[in-house]
Amino acid sequence: ASDARYGYNLTEGRGALPRVCVYNSNKPVAIIGFAFRLPGADGAELWDLLRTGANLITEVPDDRWSKPYFLHPDKSEPGRSYTFAAGTLGDVSGFDAGFFGISPREALLMDPQQRLLLEMAWEAFESGGIKPSRLRGSNTGVFLGYSIADYPYRWVDDLAVIDSTSMTGNTGSVAANRLSYWFDLCGPSMAVDTACSSSLVAFHQAWRSIQSGEVDQAMVGGIALHLHPFPFVGFSKASMLSPTGRCRVFDAAGDGYVRSEGGGIFLLKDYAQAEADGDRIFAVVAGSGVNCDGHTNGITVPGKDTQAALLREVYESAGVPFADVDYLEAHGTGTAVGDPIETAALAEVFGPGRSADNPLLIGSVKSNLGHLETASGVAGLVKALYCLAHREVPPNLHFTTPNPHIPFKDWNLRVVSEPTPLPADKPLVIGVNSFGFGGANAHLVLCEAPQQAVKSRSSSVGSKKNGEDGPQDAPPPLLLSAKSRTALQAMAARYAAFVRDQPSVDLYDLAYSAI
What is the mean pLDDT of residues 377-387? Predict the structure, then answer.
């Protein structure tokens, strides 16, 4: 069932090519599972939305706070924001507390960011076909990008509601620790806050931890929700938000970014171990790196030289030639300052090694769904995984008039403005950029996973042996379990719908996966 949800077919379009990642032979890391919540999608439908150029920006839901009270077109108006345009998840109040052994009272005071992280962590295991119980007591690490926590602000005016669970329910450190607690993971467990680059910096820490042998595997991701008007007001005062409600990345009309919410969880493992264990490998992480801009023209102004230095370090360390990069998912916020600086760094590193007819393809998922801030790296990474799976890059939206401060042709850069196929005759390489507004930079390099044979496991489930009575093709039992009768009925209904909509599904494999 996870194949249908996340849209991966391990054999589709692969042909007979021996797609082998030859980079970073020291100790590559595999992505073996993932789950996400992004505006408009939490599964395979995201790819169709991106490919068709869907604009997923709407507004903060009316039930989050009194938008008419806090909205004012004049940014100088005290305590007001000039926009509430946003990429939103909609209703984030739902949570199956009983499934995670949490009381309704504790769940009420728990930041919805923690609730979503628990759900996505479970779904990440499901996407990779991994039993969470297999990792109990293991040295699996948990690394989360976690920054602004809006939820506690809602309790400040009524401190009487605070109880013994309020602090654990509303701190970033416990967001990571709660995943370690629930799944009984005994490796390093931490929240990372570097603003907009938090998720990819957390990813880098997890990658390093696996490479050093500190952990065997890691759970990594990030989260960001809009639960209080405070950040909108603050970023409005700083004139960072787009008054027109669009992330016009690389375009002359770029006038700021649009806040967005969502998150994701990725499961990482040493590549050799993942291959030995028969894990499904979505991508290989060939390289990762972080640095900081240091002293620039202002604490929120990025630095071209340090961004370029990071790119050189990451690709040279990974052994990946700059010319081998097929696409780069840029940070790309649509700001007048950030876009020219980022593209200048890309041009300095990637431009010289490419011919004029082979410019570096660039784009940003923020043009579709906005800037997830703490979790922005999650959105870029999810898009990159789908680009690898489909061997195609979806269009970058709102790119009509190129930013005059970015000479794309001279710099050997090309913004992907329409669905663009990636090379069919080589293993793909995609880079993902992420920058924090305080100067913390992160970059990672993804390689296409080597082709894996898809093996049926039907022989181990319900199949008849020669000489046994009964039909040889009798369907196996489908074993389902849940924490309540209602949940069990809902699960059975979902399985029934899946089998009905996928008549070609192998019932033996389905039964095996459900055990």
Answer: 98
